[in-house]
Fold these 4 entries.
Entry 1:
Amino acid sequence: MYGRNGYDQLGRALLLAAILCVFLGMILPRAVYPFFLALQYAALIFCIYRALSRNTFQRQKENAWYLRKEQAVRGWFRSLRDRWQQRKDYKFFRCPSCHALLRVPRGKGKLLLTCRKCGNRFERKT
């Protein structure tokens, strides 16, 4: 394996996607089985191709792209979890102009909110 890319986070995700396609192919109706079989083979072939590739620079770029996307998805779920945990103490609003998320303490009545990102002012009831 000297000079080869090897197994990285994207390879692991591709392998898990192939395993998921196997299970979905078994659970779902027979009509969609060929579709999941094709996805399974595509994921496995691409995983093996990436592991044996000598073009490590390109494979590292692909892995960095995957890690950025994965971090964005994890951050979104983390923000959902944080909002759920803080729902009793705070109310969350979106700015009408830039859609930034604003957190305001509950029970303060009508407030004039100012967006920290764009400076837009709007009124909301907490």
Entry 2:
Amino acid sequence: MKIQIAEPYQYLEEDLMEVINNFDRSGKMLFKGSRNSIRKVKIQGQRLTIKSFQLPNLINKFVYRFIRKSKAQRSFEYGQELINNGFLTPKPVAWIEERRLFTLGRSYYISKRLKKHITFRELINNPELENWEEILIAFTEFTHRLHKANIFFLDHSPGNTLIKKGKKGGWKFYLVDLNRMKFRELSNQEKINNFSTLSATPKMLEIMATEYAKLEGWQVEETIEKFKSADRKFRQRKNRKKKLKKVLLRKG
């Protein structure tokens, strides 16, 4: 095992290792997918979330062992990078890898657990939500700040932004699922495409495009059309992948 723990939480090392060694029986399962799973635990008063990443395929077992950082390590380091740049994410606590001589097994990312939040998905599913448009505009401003800071969050999907009301008003946005990020200047098209992965409704796209156009100094109607075009193309690609997957499964 290889473990790295953020400085304020190093006293948790022994307990963290115990939890990882008994991961399937620890705490409570929050999500179990075909690839990854997430559990919540409480250790010495600390409420934590642990994400377990799937076993890499044969090639990636070697790649992640010697060439590329694991998803867990990247999540931890990108989380710290976000915080250093003034953005929010549940505080990174540790990353742990099951290492063998020439390959990588499972990897785990541990962070503080955020309570009492909603996700962007709630805005999609419930347009009657209190402060719906206000939150949506604030979210657009938040994404614009990310872009201005040269932060390209590739997994900008409905479940990966946690939203909380600030104690002094306003809205706070916390990014999760951090292993796919780039830190570089974005082209205008990349900025627009970054909204297409949100699966937003047409009305939401219009509100976000209008606000983003104001922030960038772009023509509003043209920006709305570009947002909608990017959204259509993303959905078409997504549908093609689903159809291809079904065909491959039938053949298999």
Entry 3:
Amino acid sequence: MATIDALPDIADQVAGRVPILLDGGVRRGTDGLKALVLGARAVLGRPYLWGLAAAGETGVRRVLEMFRAELELAMALAGGATLGAITRSLVTPRR
């Protein structure tokens, strides 16, 4: 099972009692948006490491800039000015 597919059930079970940090399968801003609306408090992932390996601190900064730009675009396309304005209905879970 993919991490993103397990996330909604886990988020429902912990019901906000502990923060969920999703690490796995996050490659772009749209992945981050899906994880956040499905219950993650934050996302981690390998792209930061790729940026570090490619260009050190500058590479990590660039990865974060790209991720943020992709996240903001995905939010705008989903019709939400804030993360709180975007609901789980945006994502259709695989079952």
Entry 4:
Amino acid sequence: MFVYSAPESLDLFDPISLEEMGKAELMDRTDLKYMFRLDQLDFFMSSVAEYYRVLEINGKRLFRYETVYYDTELNKLYRNHHNGIMNRFKVRHRTYVDSNLGFLEVKVKNNKGRTVKERIKCSRPESLNDENASSFICSLVVIDPGELHEKIDINYDRITLVSKTNAERVTIDLNLTFIADGKENMVDDLVIAELKRDAKMESPFLKLMRDNNVKIGSMSKYCMGMAVLELDPKKNNFKEGLMKIFKLVKK
């Protein structure tokens, strides 16, 4: 299995610490997602190095993320996304492997296109019926936590860029791996970049994507993983997006 190491272009960026980055968290934001080939990453990174700082912890700039997504037995949260229902949400637990930190997260996308994320620090719970997990979820969305079960693990490596001048971040994910029901699929030639900002402002990364004709994508990692591993029979609305992704990485 091919695993990509940190690109050389990372050395061009000034560092930012986790503490500094935490002072300007974007928990309520708008997101733009882009997908491109792995062999384009170094060029894109070097093109914007003067405008961003890169998250660095203990000398590392590429970090491992392990995330489990929860859904109902009939995949209600997945199907809400598939059917285009607004004011939808996801429930997940994310482990930051390199720093040994874990968070239970609820991510809500409202009908105005804004993404609001809330989280609490905790290790991966055995059940969302745990009092702490249950009360957290119920305070944010209308669902019985007892109906939610571990559905899929999605792991990847991430680079995080932080604007030197604006309330803006870019996360760059690679080595994307989906695991569920004894199945595993790694999409090792794909990079998923997300531009996260608190207002509709111009940004160097957005301009870079436009100038290189990289189109805005919309498929979430959760929905992609569910469709790729065929964990739900309902995926017609994602077929076109999946075809574009696999056509892209085969170039």
